[in-house]
């Protein structure tokens, strides 16, 4: 644990960190030096008995541990920490200082996971408003915290945001919240989240209806604040969605003395860990108020450098086996640049609130970042009038992504110019003097294949930041924003059939929905509701293959606005509700004068692709007329060349894919010509690869040995040697990712080479690659599961010469993706620095049966009870939450989940799971059932609140449709007239009480 960490000798690999510390304060320049362990205020702690005073330059050497206990701080200069500095828990403290710089091996600690700063104690660190000195500090690193050693900050646990029980209206001075108000106190600053898109001012800055207030009283679940609201905070007609209140106060606070002057920043560099379970850095339940000085509305320059942000992980480590940092439960308020920044680092960024930022709320900076962003609320990221002045990350995105592999679930983006932005930036030396498209090749490598769950390009030499599909993007919400979801550039993976799956996405109160700009092919939106006043979906000319599946578009002026041919684009069970113009298809030949040229284009697209170039609308499909296939298959064309070996270095992989939606051409990319009819736009299908050579204008240069090292060799029963390449192909009806094996026959190779790359077994990852390990449970040495012998990793994907054979794919998955930590069928534990509840070794005695009712079955596995995050084993477990907002993960097996009181999230995982509702569930707060699936044998169980006979259940229970959701309601009177919500069932809009009775999916206890 962090509390056991002691300052260590600086390892040689971090010598450059020592140089950075020296640049801000050389030890020899210190005016005050700690000479022994002790309290800061104790004269005996300091050389000569001189306690640091105003202007002091302070040094704590590597063998010294100091407790900071100053109640009212003088204005310190710079502190250099080579040892350990921790904060007292006995009383409030204040530190007013210009700069804190820590060296590698040091520890700065304001509370630990085992011993957080008590809620009634405050620790305030204020960075002084004094001039920056470019001569002494040309990089302008000073005026803030620059930590090369470990950082542990643990304030009192506090919910970052809660759901409002009812809509708040203009003039209100009280609201009622659902959830844990335990550490919300009088004097806290709260944010009542705006719910209506307002528009921009004359400078291009988004205006919002977010409202800050101060709590003056709390009575139960009712919050009274200091002045009336100016705006209504209501929801669109016909939608049942939540509104929110956030809390911006914490008992540990970092702030700038004068936000209009020299602002402080907070930068962490440490990537070292003390082992498994120990994060490299842990910052939990702290506030960062008016921090950060990089100004994204101004040119980046020597006087306005990048990287000076409110909460910033700076290059703490990327790749396989690096340690994880944890940023959880923090409040970041006010900043001219970015809010929380993850730069070339691995991190878990969960349960934070970010408010009032200019450029980007939570940002992955380079593209090689990994980890998870979960249950965050970001609001008022407002942008400005030059959206591309400093590249992407300046357009006002709540969640700004260069990386596509960070797990993102249950986040809220509100009142921002963009909800989510995935926009790849090109910055490779090989392209500096090149005109036109950038080069592909090994120089673009950002990920090892074992780091990605689904390798989209197994025949490419390297994976960059633009290629991987977005994975495990589930349960996210956008409120009151200008545009909900934007993608631009997936430059080098347009030759793939691995789709990015966006699931359970809810958009409301804003202007525009989804915008797929050029080079943004292969997206599927499923089980989602998208509402707004402008355009529901916009797709540009150079984008191909888009599927909307079980999606509801509401209230837009235009539903689907297309500038291209909509190749391989479909609407499956899509509803347009109150949409004035469902389709707007732009004229693809608007600038062509010649009738003959127009006819030539029309004939070309019709004969080659079956596309009506005059009116290329997407296909509209009713899924009831389709038959779901068990596995996606690939059939090679007769002229395909799937052999390679001695004297033959070329592969030509062509064929057809068959999924539940039908037939598609393998790796086909088709886009429209320019409006003038130019033929410059590329079209292709399949894969044409020559090993050891460079494609024209590119730098692919994939050697045969490199290929074999990635995919291995395997001898089949008939003696044939093959390289079995796993190609991940999305079933467009179910949105499952299927591993389809393309066997590349190896001809004329000597036995030594075949044996060198021989696999121990045939690749067998299974549908959705459920065995993939994100490694979240091992913070200190995260090593995602990868076993070359098994080929059971996210890498190595490609089609299926064997007819799409899915070796040993196991059980059919839940229709939702199952990421770790939410909601992977085999999730690693969520990074809770606090200990998880231990399983009770002996099960509870079996209750006596109630006449006419079924007794509660006892588990085969563990019984786990408690508050917070509870996780079962792979057996049939019983998980029971407490009286607060709990998260229950059943994992594999037939599990029983009892949320009890509070706004609980319930994940059954694989198996026939039982979701139990009882008296405690009737607290007026809805549970969130994430993965209820009748086909797996899941059941809704009602314990002690419904009579045993099924005949009159409709007087007690009903399920109302709300978009893609099913709202489970209960009438305590049993009259069928007074229903109240008790749970949300994801993807449950087709459920009824009658259908559940008919499938034996309801049980009464």
From TrEMBL:
One of its GO terms (cellular component) is plasma membrane. GO terms for molecular function: calcium ion binding; isomerase activity. Residues 44-166 form the G8 domain. It comes from the Bacteria. SUPFAM superfamilies: beta-Roll, Pectin lyase-like. Keywords: Cell membrane, Glycoprotein, Isomerase, Membrane, Signal. It is found in: Cell membrane. Gene3D superfamilies: Serralysin-like metalloprotease, C-terminal. Residues 773-884 are annotated as: Disordered. This is Poly(Beta-D-mannuronate) C5 epimerase 4. The lineage of its organism: Bacteria, Pseudomonadati, Pseudomonadota, Alphaproteobacteria, Rhodobacterales.
């Amino acid at each position: 644990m962090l509390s056991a960490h002691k300052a260590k000798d600086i390892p040689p690999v971090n010598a450059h960190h020592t140089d950075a510390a020296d640049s801000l304060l050389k030890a020899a320049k210190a005016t005050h030096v700690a000479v022994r362990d002790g309290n800061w205020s104790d004269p005996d702690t300091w050389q000569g008995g001189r306690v640091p005073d105003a202007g002091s330059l302070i040094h704590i050497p590597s063998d010294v541990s100091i407790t900071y206990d100053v109640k009212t701080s003088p204005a310190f200069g710079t502190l250099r920490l080579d040892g350990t500095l921790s904060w007292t828990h006995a009383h409030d403290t204040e530190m007013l200082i210009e700069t804190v710089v820590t060296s590698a091996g040091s520890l700065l600690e304001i509370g630990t996971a085992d011993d957080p700063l008590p809620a009634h104690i405050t620790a305030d660190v204020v960075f002084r408003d004094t001039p920056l000195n470019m001569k002494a500090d040309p990089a302008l690193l000073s005026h803030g915290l620059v930590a090369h050693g470990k950082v542990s900050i643990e304030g009192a646990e506090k919910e970052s945001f809660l759901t409002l029980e009812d809509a708040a209206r203009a003039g209100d001075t009280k609201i009622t919240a659902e959830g844990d108000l335990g550490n919300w106190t009088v004097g806290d600053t709260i944010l009542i989240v705006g719910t209506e898109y307002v528009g921009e001012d004359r400078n291009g800055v988004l205006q919002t209806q977010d409202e800050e207030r101060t709590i003056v009283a709390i009575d139960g679940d009712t919050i009274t604040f200091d002045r009336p609201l100016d705006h209504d905070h209501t929801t669109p007609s016909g939608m049942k969605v939540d509104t929110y209140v956030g809390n911006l106060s914490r008992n540990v606070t970092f702030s700038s003395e004068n936000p209009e002057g020299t602002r402080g920043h907070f930068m962490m560099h440490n990537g070292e860990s003390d082992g498994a379970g120990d994060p490299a850095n842990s910052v939990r339940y702290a506030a960062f108020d008016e921090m950060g000085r990089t100004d994204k509305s101004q040119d980046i320059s020597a006087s306005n450098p990048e990287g000076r942000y409110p909460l910033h992980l700076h290059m703490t480590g990327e790749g396989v086996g690096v340690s994880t940092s944890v940023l959880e439960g923090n409040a970041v308020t006010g900043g001219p640049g970015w809010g929380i920044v993850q730069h070339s680092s691995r991190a878990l960024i969960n349960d934070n609130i970010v408010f009032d930022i200019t450029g980007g709320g939570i940002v992955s900076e380079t593209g090689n970042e990994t980890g998870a962003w979960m249950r965050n609320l970001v609001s008022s990221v407002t942008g400005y009038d030059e959206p591309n002045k400093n590249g992407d990350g300046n357009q006002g995105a709540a969640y700004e992504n260069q990386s596509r592999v960070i797990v993102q679930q249950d986040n809220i983006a509100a009142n921002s110019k963009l909800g989510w932005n995935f926009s790849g930036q090109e910055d490779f030396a090989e392209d500096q003097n090149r005109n036109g498209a950038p080069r592909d090749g090994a120089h673009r490598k950002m990920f090892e294949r074992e780091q990605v769950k689904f390798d989209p390009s197994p025949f490419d030499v390297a994976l960059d930041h633009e290629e991987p599909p977005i994975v495990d993007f589930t349960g996210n919400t956008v409120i009151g924003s200008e545009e909900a979801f934007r993608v631009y550039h997936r430059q080098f993976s347009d030759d793939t059939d691995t789709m990015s799956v966006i699931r359970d996405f809810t958009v409301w109160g804003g202007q525009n929905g989804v915008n797929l700009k050029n080079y943004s092919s292969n997206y599927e939106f499923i089980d989602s509701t998208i509402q707004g006043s402008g355009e529901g979906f916009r797709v540009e000319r150079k984008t191909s293959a888009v599927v909307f599946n079980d999606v509801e578009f509401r209230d837009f002026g235009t539903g689907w606005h297309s500038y291209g041919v909509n190749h391989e684009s479909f609407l499956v069970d899509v509803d347009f509700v109150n949409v004035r113009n469902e389709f707007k298809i732009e004229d693809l030949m608007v600038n062509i004068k010649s009738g003959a040229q127009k006819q030539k284009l029309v004939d070309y697209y019709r004969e080659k692709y079956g596309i009506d170039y005059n009116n290329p609308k997407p296909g509209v499909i009713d899924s009831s007329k389709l038959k779901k296939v068990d596995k996606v298959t690939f059939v090679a064309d007769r002229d395909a060349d799937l052999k390679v070996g001695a004297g033959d270095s070329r592969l030509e992989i062509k064929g057809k894919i068959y999924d539940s939606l039908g037939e598609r051409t393998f790796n086909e990319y088709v886009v429209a010509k320019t409006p003038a009819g130019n033929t410059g736009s590329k079209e292709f299908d399949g894969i044409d690869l020559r090993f050891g050579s460079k494609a024209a204008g590119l730098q692919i240069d994939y050697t045969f040995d490199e290929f074999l090292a990635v995919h291995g060799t395997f001898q089949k029963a008939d003696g044939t040697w093959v390289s079995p390449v796993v190609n991940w192909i999305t079933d467009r009806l179910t949105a499952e990712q299927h591993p389809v094996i393309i066997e590349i026959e190896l001809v004329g190779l000597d036995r030594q080479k075949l044996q060198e790359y021989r696999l121990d077994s045939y690749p067998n990852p299974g549908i959705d690659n459920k065995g993939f390990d994100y490694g979240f449970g091992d913070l200190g040495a995260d090593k995602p599961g990868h076993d070359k012998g098994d080929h059971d990793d996210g890498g190595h994907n490609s089609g299926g010469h064997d007819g799409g054979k899915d070796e040993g794919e196991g059980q059919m998955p839940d229709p939702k993706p199952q990421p770790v930590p939410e909601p992977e069928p085999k999730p690693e534990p969520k990074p809770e620095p606090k200990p998880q509840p231990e399983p009770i070794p002996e099960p509870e005695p079996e209750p006596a049966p109630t006449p006419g009712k079924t007794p509660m079955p006892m588990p085969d596995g563990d019984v786990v009870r408690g508050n917070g995050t509870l996780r079962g084993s792979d057996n049939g477990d019983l998980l029971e939450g407490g009286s607060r907002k709990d998260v229950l993960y059943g994992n594999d097996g037939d599990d029983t989940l009892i949320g009890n009181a509070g706004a609980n999230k319930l994940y059954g995982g694989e198996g026939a799971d039982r979701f139990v509702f009882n008296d405690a569930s009737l607290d007026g707060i809805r549970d969130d059932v994430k993965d209820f699936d009748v086909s797996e044998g899941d059941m809704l169980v009602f314990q002690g609140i419904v009579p045993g006979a099924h005949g009159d259940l409709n007087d007690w229970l009903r399920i109302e449709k709300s978009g893609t959701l099913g709202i489970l309601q209960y009438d305590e009177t049993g009259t069928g007239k007074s229903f109240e919500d008790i749970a949300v069932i994801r993807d449950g809009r087709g459920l009824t009480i009658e259908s559940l009775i008919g499938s034996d999916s309801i049980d009464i206890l």
